[in-house]
Amino acid sequence: MFWSVVLLLGSAVAAGFVVVFLRLLNWAWLRPRRLDRALRAQGLKGTTYRFVYGDGARMEQLRKEREAKPLPDLTHDIIPRIAPLFQEAMREYGKMSFVWLGTHPAVTIMDPDLVKEVLSTKFGHFQKHKPDSLSRVVVTGLLLHEGEKWANHRRIINPAFHTEKLKCMLPAFSECCDELIERWEKLFVAGGSGDGDGEVSLHREVDVWPEFQTFTGDAISRTAFGSSFEEGRRIFQLQNELGEIVVDVAQRVHLPGYRYLPTKTNKRMDKILAEIDVLMRGMIEQREEAIRKGGSRNTDLLALLLESNLKESAEQGGSETAMTTEDVIGECRLFYFAGHETTAVLLTWTLVALSMHPAWQAQAREEVLRVFGRSKPDYSGLSRLKIVTMVIYEVLRLYPPATMIARETYKEMKLGDVTYPPGVELILPIVFIHHDPEFWGPDAGEFNPERFAEGISKASRVPGAFIPFSGGPRVCIGQNFAMLEAKLCLARILQHFSFELSPSYAHAPYNVLTLHPQYGAPIIMQRL
Ligand code: HEM
């Protein structure tokens, strides 16, 4: 009897091991081999799969090599530095080829028609890659959701970003610009404190990268939380710290499930999340109360979102689709994550590009002064700024803040001539599409805002080759918000300063979630 129990238990354990082993074998070897065969059988070429890590080691090696030094000159040809592995693969195997991101093949989709198809296919077909537990600390809200949940949230949040609402946010952006200009003006007073003895210097060096991070952080705090600006600012600091921790951990630790270990870093992240939760709940409760009593005149994003949500739950059956407090917190945290750094990156590369191309800087300034003189820009004037808009588009083309986005097949899907099995990542390489001479002509690598003179649709040789904000139903919800903020800020800077690159500037775009300047962006400002 005893031995039969032991035998039975032993067989169960052995069977368990066999199941786990087979699963692991399938995940680490059989499935990647199957996917590899399925792609090659349809004419696609790519790198050879390497056990578990795929091209991870090569990617890391290239990344370290390229990031060890800045670009040799002030070129806009930034791809070799920011996406060397994909560039290598495309050169060797063709534009539509694949590399291995761990155990997943990642196919680059360069054809704008196919990109459009991926982005506009109904949800449930090409989905986003599910973020791991670490990424979920910062990737929240709309960016995370799929299916019905995404559709409900998007419907509720959309009205907050309508043009009429954005117009009301202009004073908040304007206040943030005032602070930025004032900070820079103060630097011109000798000693930098602004309360010195009045001795004035003509030139000052400013690292505009941290400056724009502060500016866009303040802009989100004011526009999202208006009257609760101070709490908003605190949330921004906490979100920033979270972002820095996540980037740091992601670069150092490659351990699945790391987020669940009781490490010092994980505890700090939990503490930050708890503090954000308390602050946001307090704000949300106050606001909901004010809206119910009919006393809310707030036009900030939080109020607009809560109003739209309360309307949703008041409508028949709407209570099932309305957002919970957790959902609202997730969406507000996303505004910081998605809207702060992207816009800071855009403004930074704009100042760098206009320093490299002083003739365009002069043209843009001339336009701003013609439209506004020295007065503060208003909404209708901003929408008439043609050169400034062309300049910003050209910067978004050459330096897209989000350099690539990705989708994944969750079931067999046909795209173009290829039928993709489930488990294939489709990389939509925005920066490659934006730099491709086939779509933009022989001057694709040059800074030439003129190409946007007749609008986006006429700028490229094929439609759909300009996608800095993505496209389709999941297009960036904040694109008009970001454009308004960037135009206003640039106009104010052009009114007050002329600028050029500092001799200490090193041209080194690199990818950490968005396209950062690796050594900052020191610029010499001259007061006008
Ligand atoms: C220059 C500035 C910006 C750029 C280049 C940019 C770019 C993008 C891109 C490429 C996506 C698509 C991501 C994907 O599908 O994987 C996206 C989505 C999103 N962006 Fe932006 N963004 C910018 C500013 C903003 C701002 C200011 C906000 C909010 C205040 C914002 C909020 C969002 C949200 C919520 C999504 C998710 C939309 C959805 O899935 O329905 N973004 N953005």
TrEMBL record:
Membrane topology qualifier: Single-pass membrane protein
GO CC, alphabetical: membrane
Record-level GO BP terms: brassinosteroid homeostasis; brassinosteroid metabolic process
Keywords: Heme, Iron, Membrane, Metal-binding, Monooxygenase, Oxidoreductase, Transmembrane, Transmembrane helix
Binding site for heme: C476
Subcellular location: Membrane
UniProt-listed InterPro entries: Cyt_P450 (IPR001128), Cyt_P450_CS (IPR017972), Cyt_P450_E_grp-I (IPR002401), Cyt_P450_sf (IPR036396), Cytochrome_P450_Monooxygen (IPR050665)
A family per Pfam: p450
Cofactor(s), by name: heme
GO MF annotations in UniProt: heme binding; iron ion binding; monooxygenase activity; oxidoreductase activity, acting on paired donors, with incorporation or reduction of molecular oxygen
TM region(s), chain numbering: 6-30
Entry annotated with the keyword Transit peptide: no
Family indicated by similarity: Belongs to the cytochrome P450 family.
Entries under PANTHER family matching the protein: CYTOCHROME P450 72A11-RELATED (PTHR24282:SF255), CYTOCHROME P450 FAMILY MEMBER (PTHR24282)
Designated name of the protein: Cytochrome P450 CYP72A219-like
Organism: Ananas comosus
Gene: LOC109717013
